[in-house]
Amino acid sequence: MTMTVHLSYFLALLTASQGLNDSLLTKDTGPRPLELTEVFKLFQIKYNRSYTSPAEYAHRLNIFAHNLAQAQKLQEEDLGTAEFGETPFSDLTEEEFGQLYGHQKAPERIPDVVKKAGFEKWGQPVPSTCDWRKARNIISSIKNQKTCRCCWAIAAADNIESLWHIKTQEFVEVSVQELLDCERCGNGCNGGFVWDAYIAVLNNSGLASEKDYPFKGYPNPHGCLANRYKKVAWIQDFTMLDSDEQAIAGYLAAHGPITVTINMKLLQSYRKGVIKATPTTCDPQHVDHSVLLVGFGKGKGEEGIQSGTVMSQTCKPRKPRRSVPYWILKNSWGAKWGEKGYFRLYRGNNSCGITKYPITARLDHSVKKLPISCPP
């Protein structure tokens, strides 16, 4: 059955005093629209959701309806090719989503230890496309932070893994758990910043393997166990890049993936496509989620979603949009989210604050290996 949810119903739902059992009414021809409770039941089955009481169920149902209405609004306002709708986070409020999956609002002042690394400028010609995922054994599999607020640690670990692969041509998967247990602020799953992760790596002279020191999703009650395991990767330094998107693209293509910290607000209802946000829909000054930047490209004129529907299994196309330049980013919410764990942001207007904290580890440049170029 085609599943269609109409915005007009949800807007009425949010303002009416009646219960939540009215049917979705529409003049459109085609399959019968599902009632909200039916759509919510399918959501519960798909994402294995259950609630402790009828009151909690009604509360989550209200949030679900509100979020689908908001997704429809984003769909209409977005200037890129993104599709918004039902996701694993559709029964969470915006505040709950931020508390569970972000880290914390980045400080207005960067610690001096980051500033000492300096700014890297890039003056070489920048390729038109770059996708490090296409290179063999450079990008590790998608990780899942679950409800541990450790995106900062995963982004740093992903960065170190990819650079290690590029520099040495040896595939390693490093321990995110070691970063949670051993970083200087002791925040663990309560949030942190990528520079905390790099400082922990420098202090511990490297990182153990994921196999030896596996991810648990919570801080180890015995504290830091870094001295128990052999180090499989290490860094010499870390640096912040210039906040210029062309310079970032050049550095990314020449040296490998980097970490960035963005405003994750729009990711709650993101399904696929290129997000072209405005400062109003995604404040670039409020960044709260760290991810790995793995490439860039330009779309070929994807089609959007028909106005009037939020989610469907068979979407009716509307007028094709122009192609748009984009960044490719690796997230830490599992491979079933977004575009198999990845998402794309518009490139060229500092979408969601992507240029605020572009940071990368540095590996020993004396490693003698054949160079690897970013695949187009």
Write the layout of secondary structure elements.
Elements: H1 7-15, H2 36-47, H3 54-77, E1 83-84, H4 94-101, H5 112-115, E2 119-120, E3 130-131, H6 151-168, H7 176-182, H8 194-203, E4 237-241, H9 245-255, E5 258-262, E6 270-272, E7 274-275, E8 289-298, E9 325-330, E10 342-346, E11 359-362
Helix pairs in contact: 1-3, 6-8
From the spread of the alpha carbons, the general shape counts as globular
CATH fold-type name of the domain at 99-105 and 118-146 and 239-362: Cathepsin B, Chain A
Low-confidence stretches: 1-29, 302-319
**CATH architectural label of the domain at 99-105 and 118-146 and 239-362:** Alpha-Beta Complex
N/C terminus separation? 40 Å
Provide structural commentary.
- This protein has helices at 7-15, 36-47, 54-77, 94-101, 112-115, 151-168, 176-182, 194-203, 245-255; strands at 83-84, 119-120, 130-131, 237-241, 258-262, 270-272, 274-275, 289-298, 325-330, 342-346, 359-362.
- The strands form 3 sheets. Strands 3, 5, 7, 8, 9 and 10 form a 6-stranded mixed beta sheet that branches. A 3-stranded mixed beta sheet has the order 2-4-11. Strands 1-6 form a two-stranded antiparallel ribbon.
- It has a domain at 99-105 and 118-146 and 239-362: Cathepsin B, Chain A.
- Residues 1-29 and 302-319 have low confidence and may be disordered.
- It is an alpha+beta fold and 376 residues long.
